[in-house]
Amino acid sequence: MKKIKTILLLLVLFTSLISLQAWAIENQALYLTAQNAYKNQDYAKAISSYQQIIENEAIASEVFYNLGNCYFKTDSIGKAIQYYEKARKLIGDEEDLMHNLKMAHNRTVDKIEPMPEFVVTSTWKNIVNYNTADIWANYALINFAFVFVALILYQLAKQPSLKKTFFGLSILLALMTLIFYMLAKNRTNADNSINNGVVIVASAAIKSAPQNTSTDLFVIHEGTVFKILENQTDWLKIRLDNGNLGWIQKTAIGEI
Length: 256
Known about the structure:
Blueprint: H1 2-39, H2 43-55, H3 61-73, H4 77-91, H5 95-106, H6 119-130, H7 133-156, H8 160-193, E1 195-199, E2 203-207, E3 216-221, E4 225-232, E5 235-239, E6 245-249, E7 253-255
Antiparallel strand pairs: 1-4, 1-7, 2-3, 4-5, 5-6
Helix pairs in contact: 1-2, 2-3, 3-4, 4-5, 7-8
């Protein structure tokens, strides 16, 4: 009986490995197809291949970034911003990505001025968004390891001046570890607790209530980014950076 169970377990593992390998090969083939299509300026084919990779749940920053480029080339500014922002969640404020994102925003109609923030708050947000949560967490772990190294050197040191130096260094590294931990935690909360969206149609009327017969409050255009506050069937309650609130139909937006 034990041998049969072992054989069955091995068969399951073998089947899983074969399936995983086939999944990886399929996605690699789709990626190469998309890359070649992009080089040949066949953006529709490239978009189709990249979207298939996403449907296969193979999430990668390169796929989001390249898909954003494809949509930018086809003047689908809203979707370009959507996928640039998705890539940004994975790789942070990478230089080329931020350049392309800025170019996409420059082609939007709505120029919404954000509500003023306290300088310390805005500076902290910029620092948090500079790297991904994983990178900040790695920095925290590295510094935490160095804390132990500094404490060991403190214990081994014979001279009072060296002891003082290593002890001070351990305190500094501990403070840096705490800061990196806070940055990682804040970036994780920013990615998970607040859902953002972007308009992917030419224009969308923002309603006073989640129904077509409600009053039109204002109109926003393709590429405008907003925060999603509430979800009701076919409608979303949103807030713009300038504080304006209202309801928008889900069919008009792409979630970030």
